[in-house]
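Q: My labmate handed me this sequence with no annotations at all. I'd like to see what the chain might look like in three dimensions before we decide whether it's worth expressing. Could you predict it?
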Amino acid sequence: MSRVRRDTLLFLTLSILLIVLSYLFFRYAYDFADGWPFSQEIILAFVGAIITILITAVLLNKQTEVELKKEESIKYLDLKSAIYMDLLDHLQKIFLAGEATEADIITLKFLNHKLALVADPEVLMQFEDFIRAFTRRVESPEEGEESEISEEDEDVLMRELAKLTVAIRHDLVGQLDEQEDISLKRIAQQIRINSDILEDYD
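A: Here is what I predict for the chain of 202 residues:
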């Protein structure tokens, strides 16, 4: 059970206990003041004030819990986005250089560990397909040397990267796409079309 949920449960329990005790006390006081109508009105006013305070406190507590969850979700999404962009930026660097150095491979290994912390399972599976293609097409560089990436290798890797991009997009904005009634299949098809156009342009 999370700390916020535990605190909320404790607060609700104490609130219910306070309501019951307040009811018993004011019921006794109301009966005791039966002969003084003015006193009964004051007691009723106190009861109304206490109930209003309790309801307000419960609503504020719930609002705080919702805001905390929203803030955590935003931070988590920002972290995901940063790691995904780091991965794409690093791959861009490798493709622009036309070769992969030992340092590039080490960086890729660390990015793999970062993805393991935050990535959606679909992203992890597509990344597996990409690195399998990468390791088949690009030889492991010797210390201090580079492994060149041919045009054919680049074409294959770009197609795998397009699939990975589809999974990343679905992880980051998939809910928004669903709200806009845009299917994942349509998005994937469009991303691949754009990628193929640029590959043919080369």
